[in-house]
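Task card 7
Instruction: Convert sequence to structure tokens.
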Amino acid sequence: MTTDAPRRLRVLAAMSGGVDSAVAAARAAEAGHDVTGVHLALSENPKSFRTGARGCCTIEDSHDARRAADVIGIPFYVWDLAERFREDVVEDFFAEYEAGRTPNPCLRCNEKIKFAALLDKALALGFDAVCTGHYATIVERPDGGRELHRASDMAKDQSYVLGVLDDQQLAHAMFPLGDTLTTKAEIREEAARRGLFVAKKPDSHDICFIADGDTQAFLAQRLGRAEGDIVDESGTKVGTHEGAYGFTIGQRKGLRIGTPAPDGKPRYVLDISPVDNTVTVGPAESLDVTALTAVRPRWCGAAPTGPGTYTAQLRAHGGETEVTADLVDGELRVTFAEPVRGVAPGQAIVLYDGTRVVGSATIATTDRARAAA
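Output:
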């Protein structure tokens, strides 16, 4: 009795220059696929370099990716997508903060760059799939369709930032690390066994195009400084700021309020108004959100019909919370089983059915449990 051998695919492996994408490319090649490595040049400043564990997609990273491809024994190219990245990710980042919202550039990059611009170009060149080092799992359904699921190891799960992928993009995606029940240390050990130089390279974190991690200074350089008022829930001025864009809902640190709260408790950012450049602060309990409306829904498969019960994730490294959700006039209406805090317009809400990613949408408005005084 014979069994059909796994299909040999032409795979384009996106190699950032880090350990995860290098091991993912190596595993894809080891599985027998015809793999080509590609590094995306996303910075418009070719002289940019990493600062410790901050930043990525720099000259240094492209060299690291090339060395990894040489060790794996696969062809390697650098593709310049800097202009597309600037238009779709960086400009969107500025626009969202200027409008008083808090964007997620990593999620936008996956949607617009890695699984749109990159995937479109890969398919046009005859590749079957794009491979990345994300920790997520793709499950084949009996009907041949594909579902996006959480990684086997929840501690490393990155399905939240992939919740923007539709079924057509999932049909051409490959995540070789998703079903790995290993620690990051073991991934590094695997890289070392394979002779990959990046085995000990620090992970990049924060926002890749802000190498020093100073988001407020980055925004100020583009948007300028504009002094405005910080007020409490009653409208009383309690401080000043240099630009409402420098704040996000739920922020506690860096408020620089000279007047203490009457009850002596910490205050948090409750609202950001770009129209009058005002930031409202108040107690933690005023952050409790009971429901929200989200726009631009994207579904990892067919759109749900009628209201349903799901779990939701509101931040890349946040936990799950139970919700009911329904699609009404093209908008997602979500009600929380228990109030949640730190929900910021502009961020993504990703819905799950067990481990399966149902889809995502961008938070537009929230309903607070406690009305402002």
